[in-house]
Automatic annotation (TrEMBL):
Organism ancestry: Bacteria, Pseudomonadati, Pseudomonadota, Alphaproteobacteria, Hyphomicrobiales
Organism, as annotated: Rhizobium quercicola
Domain of life according to the entry: Bacteria
Name of protein: DUF1013 domain-containing protein
Length: 232
């Protein structure tokens, strides 16, 4: 694994202030553009960044800086780390603690039901199981099938939500989008909705009879005095 420079812009600030290296040499070492290094030197960029000494961090030696200052064509090389940390390469299924291994069948059942797009290898990576166990649970031939209860592996602590979402996203790539028939509910075509009957007919507005209206008003006025007399 190639070594990566820590805080490249802060390192560039220190090299600009403390060495006679060219802008191109600093830009190449810090993986910046020469114009960006020039802006740092002119005070137009990285004004609030404190310089980081690459010699103190062990990423550059004083001899390498002197050699580059004497030869403008020399490219700075990052120093080898004094302590090498081996890369962790995990192969095979995920390790599951003994206390949670009894929950794996329930998690497998949940994944099979809720995410049928997942492959056996993906389920194996998520909960740390074997393909034969997944096949037995999927075909209901597992010795404890009658007592299994589908449970979310994230809730059980067998995997993280990020890992689950990543595997689902990988399994969904390349799959055709669901059609309207697959989704079930669809909109009716406009031709059908235009012919839809609501079960009643709109009543036609009746023409108003002026004589009948005035006659009714006269009857109401004539009835009012009689009612007043009866009160007294």
């Amino acid at each position: 694994m190639a070594q990566q420079l820590l805080m490249p812009k802060a390192t560039a600030v220190w090299l600009v202030d403390n060495t006679a290296l060219s802008f191109e040499q600093i830009a190449t070492f810090c993986k910046l553009h020469p114009l960006e290094v020039k802006a740092i030197a002119d005070g137009e960029s990285a004004q609030g960044i404190k310089g980081l000494d690459p010699i103190a961090t062990g990423q550059l030696s004083r001899d390498e800086i002197v050699r580059a200052e004497g030869n403008p064509n020399h490219k700075l090389k990052i120093s080898d780390p004094k302590v090498r940390v081996p890369e962790s390469k995990r192969k095979g299924p995920r390790y599951t603690p003994v206390s949670k291994r009894q929950d794996r069948p329930n998690a497998i059942l949940w994944l099979v039901r809720n995410h049928p797009e997942l492959k056996d290898a993906q389920i194996s990576r998520l909960v740390g199981t074997t393909k034969s166990t997944i096949e037995q649970i999927r075909e209901r031939t597992h010795w404890n099938s009658a007592n299994l209860t589908a449970s979310d592996p994230v809730t059980l602590g067998l995997c993280s939500q990020i890992d689950l979402d990543l595997e689902v996203e990988r399994a969904s790539k390349g799959r055709p989008l669901p059609t309207a028939a697959d989704l079930g509910a669809t909109l009716e075509p406009a031709q059908e909705t235009e012919r839809f009957s609501y079960g009643y007919e709109r009543e036609e507005e009746k023409e108003m009879d002026a004589d009948a209206v005035f006659a009714k008003l006269k009857s109401l006025k004539s009835a009012t005095p009689d009612e007043e007399e009866e009160k007294y």
